[in-house]
Design a protein that fits this description.
Elements (H helix, E strand, L loop, with lengths): L3 E6 L3 H12 L4 E4 L11 E2 L8 E2 L6 H5 L1 H6 L8 E2 L3 E6 L5 E5 L2 H7 L4 H13 L1 H9 L9 H4 L3 H4 L3 H5 L5 H11 L11 H14 L4 E2 L4 H13 L3 E3 L13 E6 L3 H8 L5 H8 L6 E9 L13 E6 L3 H12 L9 E4 L14 E9 L8 H11 L7 E7 L1 H7 L15 H5 L16 E3 L13 H15 L5
Parallel strand pairs: 1-2, 1-10, 2-9, 6-12, 10-16
Antiparallel strand pairs: 3-4, 5-8, 6-7, 11-14, 11-15, 12-13, 13-14
Helix pairs in contact: 1-12, 1-19, 4-5, 5-11, 10-11, 10-15
This protein binds flavin-adenine dinucleotide.
Amino acid sequence: MTDLDAVVVGAGPNGLAAAVTLAAAGLSVHVVEGASTAGGGCRTEQLTLPGFSHDVCSTIHPLAVASPFFRQFDLPAHGVKLRYPEIAFAQPLDDGTAAAAYQCLSRTVDELGAGGPSWRRLMQPLVDRAEAIVPAALAPLRSVPAEPVRAARFLPHALRSAAAVAARLEGGRARALFSGVAAHAMLPLDRSPTGGFGAVLALLAHAVGWPAVEGGSQRITDALVDQLRAHGGTIETRRWVTSLSELPTARVALLDIAPQQLLDIAGGSLPAAFARALRSYRYGPGVCKLDWALSGPVPWTAAACRRSGTVHLGGTFEEVAGSEAEVAAGRHPESPYTLVVQAGVVDPTRAPSGRQGVWAYCHVPAGSTVDMTERIERQIERFAPGFRDLILARSVLTAADEHARHPNYIGGDINVGAATVRQTLFRPTVRWNNYRTPMKGVYLCSSATPPGGGVHGMCGYNAARSALRREFGIRAR
Ligand SMILES: Cc1cc2nc3c(=O)[nH]c(=O)nc-3n(C[C@H](O)[C@H](O)[C@H](O)COP(=O)(O)OP(=O)(O)OC[C@H]3O[C@@H](n4cnc5c(N)ncnc54)[C@H](O)[C@@H]3O)c2cc1C
């Protein structure tokens, strides 16, 4: 294999998006993946009992639906069936009710009661301009948005903290609902840009929905691999790259890896200043993730939680904020903010009839080896008494296990880098082109580049477009 145009290391959604983009432009492309199957954080396995299909990482795909890369790729045309829960995310409260974000904004507003009008004031202007805001949020900072004036409507929220956004929401229910979605940022809620993070995810709930893929997220990966092969690309698994010198000769190399790995595998070839900048890149907290095989759906007290794909646990804004602050201080919360995903609400194919596979994680300090099973299950029991009686089997991964299985998730950080303001705007270092490295023909394309974590393929797509333009003089559509 000496005549390759491009080699891609890592077959996560970003590596595959890069490979498909390069191959579609007519280049010869080879992908090297260390794990036994392609997909990285977009895979489905039988983690518990026969008949159960569990997503190893991602399940909920608003970012894929909104992503310009996947829009062009056209997932449904490749046989990927998206299933939309009526409610994108819900947050149960101790009074037995829940605040819920329906895809329908008006229904969300109606059911939020006193806080409804303030939720509309926050979300309606964003929803009206979603077609301009979402592509701008997923593009590299240096690119000019297609509709700059409409996209600019998001700017006042972009750098706010969740606490600042919540201060404009009225009533505990609306504030609680916002805390659960903003806490995906994995930062204390009084820090910027947790408000922007929450606002984008809530906007996606109303603008495109929060779907799951029928049969599991693996179907997205399978579609990408099929398309790569259709364009003549090749992929090899079970080959961990430990040095750039091991790679087949190619004009460009695109790396779907964390900055820490780049330091390891590039050895002394990195210029000292760039290596120093990579060393100062900050990673966020980790997650402890549980998957359960259940004998039936989770018995949530609040009816809305039974119709929601994602359920955020922690009760009030203050409690969720307290939990995130504890993690940032290096502690394991007794009553952790917990994110529960139940694809079975819309996809019965993932479990034997009447049963359900559910996963949940909570945030923990980076590299934690603490098993949070007891605390996570207690948190679910609080809002769904009887949950424990349904457990047939469980799989547990501490943050340290996450890192061991997924080399990009340093210390269990699933976003591959803390979502601080600086690292949201410039990842992994402050450079005009965040995908290019100072090494000739070597590009980074993992979620340590803009726009960061999630299954949107945009890091790979943006990196591939940059490589096509600079190294091959090709302007990809
Ligand atoms: C528990 C969990 C839940 C999540 N839920 C969601 C969700 O619901 N929705 C969502 O949008 N996102 C979710 N995410 C995040 C999402 O999975 C990731 O952001 C996404 O997979 C990142 O894609 P990537 O291609 O950058 O990296 P990855 O998916 O991590 O892929 C990197 C690939 O590179 C390979 N690799 C790394 N180093 C080497 C090497 N040296 N040699 C060879 N191969 C290598 C890895 O094996 C892996 O296959 C979740 C993540 C986790 C862990």
